[in-house]
């Protein structure tokens, strides 16, 4: 139970950080925005993959 709760906190922090990074990147150059989105997408894919394997 505690581990699941901890995992949820981590997921929420990552999500908030990702969203914040997107909004911050919007105010910066477009090339940086696309670069940041690529990193965020790859991180989300890695985290979701690890999460699925972990819960199994």
Architecture overview:
This protein has 56 residues and is an all-alpha fold. It has one domain (2-55). Helices cover 91% and strands 0% of the residues.
Structurally, the number of domains stands at 1
How is the main sheet built? none
Shape: elongated
Structural class: mainly alpha
Write the layout of secondary structure elements.
Layout (H helix, E strand, L loop, with lengths): L1 H25 L3 H26 L1
In short:
By secondary structure, the chain is mainly alpha-helical. The chain has helices spanning 2-26, 30-55. It has one domain (2-55).
Key phrases:
single chain, 56 residues, elongated, 91% helix, mainly alpha, 2 helices
């Amino acid at each position: 139970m505690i581990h699941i709760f901890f995992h949820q906190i981590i997921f929420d922090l990552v999500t908030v950080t990702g969203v914040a990074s997107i909004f911050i990147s919007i105010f910066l150059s477009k090339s940086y925005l696309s670069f940041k989105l690529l990193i965020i997408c790859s991180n989300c894919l890695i985290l979701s993959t690890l999460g699925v394997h972990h819960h199994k």
